Amino acid sequence: MAAVWNTLRMRAWLYVALFLWVSSSSSSLVSASVSYDDKAITINGRRRILISGSIHYPRSTPEMWPGLIRKAKDGGLDVIQTYVFWNGHEPSPGQYNFEGRYDLVRFIKVVQQAGLYVHLRIGPYICAEWNFGGFPVWLKYVPGIAFRTDNGPFKAAMQKFTEKIVNMMKSEKLFEPQGGPIIMSQIENEYGPVEWEIGAPGKSYTKWAAQMAVGLNTGVPWIMCKQEDAPDPVIDTCNGFYCEGFRPNKNYKPKMWTENWTGWYTKFGGPVPYRPVEDLAFSVARFIQNNGSFVNYYMYHGGTNFGRTAAGLFIATSYDYDAPIDEYGLLRQPKWGHLRELHRAIKLCEPVLVSSYPQVSWPGKNLEVHVFNSKSGCAAFLANYDTVSPAKLTFQNMQFELPPWSVSILPDCKNDVFNTARVTTHSFHPNMISVGGAFSWQSYNEESVSADDSDTIVMDGLFEQINITRDASDYLWYLTDVNIRPDEEFLKNGQDPVLTVMSAGHAVHVFINGQLSGIAYGSLENPKLTYTGNVKLRAGVNKISLLSVAVGLPNVGVHYETWNAGVLGPVTLKGLNEGTRDLTKQKWSYKVGLRGESLSLHTVGGSSSVEWVEGSLLAKKQPLTWYKATFNAPEGNDPLALDMNSMGKGQIWINGESIGRHWPGYKARGSCGSCSYAGTFDEKKCLSNCGEASQRWYHVPRSWVKPSGNLLVVFEEWGGEPTGISLFKRTI
Ligand SMILES: *[C@@H]1O[C@H](CO)[C@@H](O)[C@H](O)[C@H]1NC(C)=O
Ligand SMILES: *[C@@H]1O[C@H](CO)[C@@H](O)[C@H](O)[C@H]1NC(C)=O
Ligand SMILES: CC(=O)N[C@H]1CO[C@H](CO)[C@@H](O)[C@@H]1O
């Protein structure tokens, strides 16, 4: 009996245990989940108005992440949005890197610890002004591949990486139904315009991408941005400077704005764009008053394109973006503070916003009123769209003053707690304070190479640059010899022949018999370039050495993987007895990278492998020169920057870590007039720095600097004045 009773009791316990297990696992799949309806994303059954901001983990250091996330939280954000950077994670096929700045799991856990959510934009195409739009360069050389279309090899690679990331997130329990912070993911990125151009294969690729993503069962919604035909249940979302007029493709999807541009990126050769916070706040308020329930600031912290991660073409090393947190991790005021006030006002309205639709009325010219009414209360948005005149508006028998181009928020339909154009936050101007004095430089001359050097590849004709370098270096030497007969007329009359070099981009330095003869470079608008110049040739064999320099690979455009870089010709020599000699098809030798790169001169070990000179022998204004100096860290914790204004173009390293490309020699062209916040904004409206270097300051992360004995290495292509370089700290 006892035994039977025991068995029964055990069976009962088993049933209870099984029941508990089933209910807990099903609740973690269903009820404790993220879903959506036409009003909003719902988290654990509750509709939310979510304020999100983009912070890209490789654009800062892990040491900076907790501070950035705390400032984002203090600024009133609920969500951190980031892309996933495939080429950082899989530098060669099957070899993964999730360390340091690429420690995605650590980044997400930092966000989680701060109590914020994550919107994970896996892509894996990400655009993002990031090298090759996030794709690894090897992907281009997978046989038969075509990017971002209905192509077998591409889809297989995309699926493999997407699964890798999703599985990693699942095994770390980072999706919201698992108790993690990820409430949403993104597949593809701004694909709509590409699909529109390529038609049918684009459409079937979109369907496949959505199905593939949804099939990964993350338990959280997927979105596609700028993708009007996003298949169910994927949500289509808006990117832009304004999105109030946007409607999702189904009436049961929420209205979401995944990229609200807080500013714009800087390119070498361009001025530095900024966006007045009055207009930014105005655009957000307009979106919210028109049923919007998710807003993301792109960027909330832009950061730095360290190393060679900046995209082609010509994207600067700074990715500051005029974001609420500046490149260095400091608050940009009044932008950060004014947006925080905006977020507070919106949050006061949240209960009524998620439980009603607005009633819209137009009480006068350029005036618009949105009233939300539900049993949760009443909230009103009063808007004046006039770009010049303030307005008086009577609402519920009270008079409200509205500055031009502004929205007032009344969370109780009575008190105007916030107006987008009335900025009460003080503005701060960060100072750059010189620290540490002059560097004690040593220099090392990077010889220009010639065709008969060893370790060159010899081929007939001119070849595409990236096919040869595989982006292992920015630099590719194109080398050839030119025979000049002693009876050439120009040797007597002194009329030097003209060398013409046509290149697909992005910059070229022309050396004749080891001497720099000229420089040419393209621009973001036109990466192609033509060098034309008289060259000094002598009777006999002359060495023509062209150093072709890539400034990142393209990141956007239909089939941008097919775009070329490098000297593709023609290359001609005009003014010889025979007329013009075409050098295009003759024998050319190729050498990838610099000697200093192969010696790893940027590292402590590598830099001691060659003889450096100093003092009166120090190279100044000399092209292709390496410089090194050691320095001690300035006291305190203020962010650091190098002033590179005296230099031309090249790259910088601290203790072996690449700060990025410097190019202060490229001056900002454009017109930087005054700019009013009122009126429709675009990226050309508000500009600064015209006539000056597009980027003068280069961020040196504190965590890369030791208390003493830091190695600073600069490679200079054009020839600069190294004694002009100095270290600054940035303080408010
Ligand atoms: C808000 O959404 C509702 C339901 O879809 C719609 O009827 C209404 O026109 C929308 N209002 C605005 C201002 O977009
Ligand atoms: C790439 O380089 C190889 C030689 O390294 C050459 O055979 C091939 O034709 C090149 N392809 C293109 C597209 O330039
Ligand atoms: C959706 C949207 O507003 N898109 C715009 C974003 O900004 C770019 C550049 O100004 C425009 O070309 C897009 O139309």
UniProtKB/TrEMBL annotation:
One Gene Ontology term of the molecular function aspect: beta-galactosidase activity
Presence of keyword Lyase: no
Lineage of producing organism: Eukaryota, Viridiplantae, Streptophyta, Embryophyta, Tracheophyta
Glycoside hydrolase 35 catalytic domain segment(s): 41-345
Catalyzed reactions: Hydrolysis of terminal non-reducing beta-D-galactose residues in beta-D-galactosides
Name of the gene encoding the protein in the UniProt record: GAL1
EC number: 3.2.1.23
GO biological process: carbohydrate metabolic process
Source species: Diospyros kaki (Kaki persimmon)
Name of the protein this chain belongs to: Beta-galactosidase
Residues covered by the Beta-galactosidase beta-sandwich domain: 369-423
InterPro entries recorded: BetaGal_gal-bd, Galactose-bd-like_sf, GH, GHD, Gly_Hdrlase_35_cat, Glyco_hydro_35_CS, Glycoside_Hdrlase_35
Gene3D superfamilies per the UniProt record, alphabetical: Galactose-binding domain-like, Glycosidases
Family: Belongs to the glycosyl hydrolase 35 family.
